[in-house]
Design goal:
Rossmann fold, single chain, RNA-binding, 37% helix, 3 domains, Threonyl-tRNA Synthetase, Chain A, domain 2, 5-stranded antiparallel sheet, BirA Bifunctional Protein, domain 2
RNA sequence: GCUUGUGUGGCUCAAUGGCAGAGCAGCUCACUUGUAAUGAGCAGGUUGUCGGUUCGAUUCCGACCACAAGCUCCA
């Protein structure tokens, strides 16, 4: 977003606040910035706004825009500034938080004045094309312990055409929504009966299993071995790992013969036991143990979102055990693996370094060291990243890799966590060259993150038209009439024998209809078989993206598919 | 969990304080088709659940459940 658009939207948010102040004189103003999609303003009001209220507010905003108030900046010394906002407790708090010596600026338009750093457009008449989109709850300073505010979202543009393009883009994005495509393509779904517990159907399982086959191939190449640990483990283990103390609110519990057990929310404690099954030599390190672990976490009901945030998911987890000297190269190895796998799908990703949270384990000095190691690795690999303070795991800082969905919402997928704590809790050891026992360092990491979330992202990324390798159905055979059914069965059998995922649509329907259905199902190839093809022993190939590709021998077509598969 | 909204056949959506309707999908029949929807017929519903108001509730009210958007949280 350029500066001019930002200023326009910021001014729109002031006009919003002015309109609300006119209609609800008791409303207290919090903050109102321009954002990627538009702008918002947070208000402390008696009753949260309903859609009807928003219409009235929007109408008042139009009046303010028509009145073309000059938007004027002025600065005040602290005392006077506080006096200006004496009836606005949130503004007072903002002013008090400003460092001494910082200029305190206000913007005035008509009867309305707001504390603001700017910049703005020169008068309210500039804000012609705008729309309020929703009202939701937000917390003062983003903290759930604080006052609940009513946040009004809107968007603004310079021209009607831009606004229309924005709304059209939102409609287009809605068509790629994985929740919609999951149902339409018969891949996966969520039901009332299992909030946050997704179902995968046969076609969804093919996608999932192909993804896993690719994952296993890449991990084998990267020197990983695979394990599996139990879903349910004794309560005592979770006390030892620190999860009980730091993660209890998110855990599910059960009893077996009167003793307490935990449904695992993470795979690491089980992984630790797998490491401890025998003694390790420094010559064997690093050990890279991967696990496709199903974890259950009690996420807040309001946080659930399709496959993106669920209560039961499969992590493509791995725990790497190493000597301190091996840390940098192992971190780099993970960063490279993530990059290699994401590139295959053409993903752009964002990287964050998440540091020590409020609820943490161990010594601050250890944390500082770990954070520095991660940061050094990012710098060494010239990775662009931003710091996300306080968002680390309770046992260590992490590097997170975020992907975006069709609406631009960002979801954490890969993660790389450096952990000095768990090896301590579990007294992990290896024998060094000196013959003595040493404590290994460990890395927790995922690449896909959650298989479910990744499939959600993948579905939206490709709008359901998955690459051949991941398509649940790769080719569909479409006989023109009943008399071509036998030849069609031969072609279908040949495709299946060659290992391709094929379907046969021998219904007595018009070819246009069958093609339409195959197209809607985003099947990569359609093979139309009529008299000509039967006579010549060929197949007429249509691709979902390129239309009619003409006739070719069936073996030629299969060779073409093989070549396409070899790309990944 | 919080705020606002939504909930009608498998899917997409109408309608109304007084017998709940359409398209798609499904089933049956006819058509034998050349690159994005052939026609006809049949079947499919305790209008999310539980209460309340009412002669009568799918419609109004309340609680609960689920979903959507956002906040919080996180893979």
């Amino acid at each position: 977003m350029d500066d001019q658009l930002r200023a326009l939207r910021h001014s729109a948010s002031h006009i919003l606040a002015q309109a609300v102040t006119r209609l609800y004189p008791d409303a207290k103003l919090a903050i109102g910035p321009a954002i990627e999609q538009g702008f918002y303003y947070d208000f402390d009001v008696e009753k949260p706004f309903t859609p009807e209220d928003l219409e009235a507010i929007e109408a008042e905003m139009k009046v303010i825009a028509r009145e073309r108030y000059r938007i004027e900046r002025f600065e005040l010394p602290r005392e006077q500034a506080l006096e200006t906002v004496r009836s606005q407790p949130y503004k007072r708090e903002l002013i008090c938080a400003l460092p001494e010596g910082e200029p305190i600026s206000f913007y005035k338009q008509g009867e309305f004045t707001d504390l603001c750093a700017g910049p703005h457009v020169d008068h309210t008449g500039r804000v012609k094309v705008f729309k309020l989109t929703s009202a939701t709850a937000a917390y003062w300073r983003g903290d759930a312990r604080n006052q609940t505010l009513c946040r009004v979202y809107g968007t603004a543009f310079f021209t009607k055409e831009e606004l229309q393009a924005h709304l059209t883009a939102l409609e287009e994005a809605a068509k790629r929504d994985h929740r919609k495509l999951g149902r339409e393509l018969d891949l996966f779904a969520l039901y009332d009966e299992g909030p946050g517990f997704p179902f995968f159907f046969p076609k969804g399982m093919i996608l999932r299993n192909e993804l896993l086959a690719f994952w296993r191939q890449e991990h084998k190449r990267a020197g990983y071995e695979e394990i599996s640990t139990p879903l349910i483990l004794r309560e005592e283990l979770w006390h030892r790992s620190g999860h009980w103390e730091h993660y209890k609110d998110n855990m599910y519990f059960t009893n077996i013969d009167d003793s307490g057990f935990v449904i695992k929310p993470m795979n690491c404690p089980g992984g630790m036991l797998a490491y401890k099954r025998r003694m390790w030599s420094y010559r064997e390190l690093p050990v890279r143990m991967a696990e496709l672990g199903v974890v259950h976490r009690h996420e807040l009901s309001g946080a659930l979102h399709g496959l993106m945030r669920v209560r039961s998911f499969t992590q493509d987890d791995a725990h790497l055990y190493m000597t301190p000297e091996q840390i940098p190269s192992e971190i780099v190895g993970v960063i490279e693996l993530v990059d290699r796998i994401y590139k295959v799908f053409g993903f752009e990703y964002r990287v964050e370094l998440s540091t020590r949270p409020e609820s943490y384990m161990g010594e601050i000095a250890t944390w500082d060291k770990a954070e520095r190691i991660l940061e050094d690795a990012l710098i060494a690999k010239s990775v662009n990243y931003r710091v996300n303070p306080g968002d680390g795991a309770f046992y260590g800082p992490k590097i997170d890799f975020h992907l975006v969905d069709s609406l631009g919402r960002s979801w954490q997928c890969a993660t790389l966590q450096l952990d000095f704590q768990m090896p301590e809790c579990f007294e992990l050891e290896y024998i060094g060259p000196d013959g003595a026992a040493h404590r290994p360092v460990m890395i927790h990491r995922t690449v896909l993150g959650s298989l479910e979330r990744f499939i959600g992202i993948l579905t939206e990324h490709y709008a359901g038209a998955f690459p051949l390798r991941f398509s649940p159905v790769q080719a569909i055979v479409l006989p023109l009439t009943d008399r071509h059914a036998e030849y069609a069965r031969d072609v279908f059998a040949a495709l299946q024998d060659a290992g391709f995922r094929a379907e046969l649509d021998a219904r007595s329907e018009k070819i246009g209809y069958k093609i339409r259905q195959a197209q809607v199902q985003k099947i990569p190839y359609m093979l139309v078989l009529g008299d000509k093809e039967e006579e010549n022993g060929t197949v007429a190939v249509r691709s979902r993206s390129g239309g009619d590709l003409g006739a070719m021998k069936c073996c030629e077509f299969m060779e073409k598919m093989r070549q396409e598969l070899n790309i990944t």
